[in-house]
Amino acid sequence: MTVLCMGEALVDLVPRPDGSIRPLPGGGAWNTALALGRLGVATSFAWPISRDAYGALLLGPLAAAGVETSLCPRSDRPTALARIDLNSSDASYRFDYENSAGRMFAPAQLPPLPPDCRALLIGGISLAAEPCGSTVERFATSAARRGVPLMLDPNIRPQAIHDEPKYRARLDRLFALSHLVKLSAEDAVWLAPGMAPEETARRILARGPGIVVLTCGAQGALALTRQHRLYAAAVPATVADSIGAGDSFNAGFLASLLHSNALDAPDSAAVTAALALATKAAAITVSRPGADPPWADEL
Fold first, then answer.
1. 254-265 burial, b if ≥16 CB within 10 A, otherwise e?
2. Can you state the percent helix, strand and coil of the chain, rounding each to 5?
3. How far is C-alpha 200 from the chain's CA centre?
4. Cα(29)–Cα(115) distance, integer angstroms
5. N or C, fewer C-beta in 10 Å, the chain?
6. Strands 43-46 and 2-6, bridge-based pairing
């Protein structure tokens, strides 16, 4: 059984202390696919990959982690870039993705849904622009209606949003289709300014998901279900940067639920275990530069 991740693959241009720039592969869904593969979960990734030099940079780590990339159409368009500014170990992003391979992802390029798909993960800036946003929503809607559990991580980047009303409407539709939603506290504040993040998470839970997880950085993470409110403290770490932390959290949480066969009906023990693995995976990721998620033997 395979987890399919669909969403942006791009190259992070990360500044070094000496002022030079280090290109690192990344993107929300790409990072999560890499992390799942490193955790030993059978994983496929689907997103247009450029034939430029950065395309090889994106495919190499996935192959090393055992992630299947045959569902990735190849494109002559350039790889999207994210120019990253690091301020007190927090990352902010400026995206250069106009006419990029991923931004122009069209319905005609969609792969078939793998017959053994156990879960579909989507999110990030792939939902915020066109035509890729409509393409991903179309695929996710079809998969969810066929009974595939959908995990959604909005991973909201305001600077990447071109049409806020359209984007908010898309997220509302996808919340209602999702089985599992992960929000950061920053996501929750953007979705409902002036409302406590936990209240925002509860309102999303009422829309239909079985689980909503709220991550709050150093303040830990909270998981809400119809029956449970479960909390996990953040695992202490010396922070190099925050790049990819939430994506590693996603992978750890989903991998744990799949391992315990609890994705469809999670009990408190399964959710507690998932929070523990997810927070540990995130802590390891923030302790080293770039999106470098842990391997299974590190957990």
1. bbbbbbeebbee
2. 40, 25, 35
3. 19
4. 20
5. N
6. parallel
Q: What is the dihedral of CA 276, 278, 284, 286, to 10 degrees?
A: -120
Using the CB atoms, write b or e for 204-236: b if 16+ within 10 Å.
bbeeebbbbbbbbbeeebbbbbeeeebebebbe
Q: Say which residue the tokens 């301020």 belong to.
A: 87
Give how far Cα 36 sits from Cα of 29, 92, 186, 225, 250, Å.
10, 24, 24, 23, 9
Q: Dihedrals φ, ψ of 98, to 5°?
A: -60, 130
Amino acid 1: pLDDT: 79
Residue with tokens 């408190």: 268
pLDDT in tens, 192-206: 999 999 999 999 999
**SS3 at position 299:** coil
End-to-end CA distance of the chain: 22
Using DSSP, how many helices (H) and how many strands (E) does the chain show? 8, 14
* 150-153 and 180-184 strand pairing: parallel
Task: List, in order of start, the domains of the chain with CATH numbers.
Answer: 2-8+28-47+114-298 (3.40.1190.20)
Least Cα distance to 225 among 208, 244, 248, 240 occurs for 208
Tokens for 93? 């992003």
| pLDDT higher than 80, residue 86 | no
> Which tens digits make up the pLDDT trace of 211-265?
999 999 999 999 999 999 999 999 999 998 888 999 999 999 999 999 999 998 8
Q: Does position 16 have pLDDT exceeding 90, yes or no? A: no
The DSSP H or E segment spanning 49 is strand 49-50
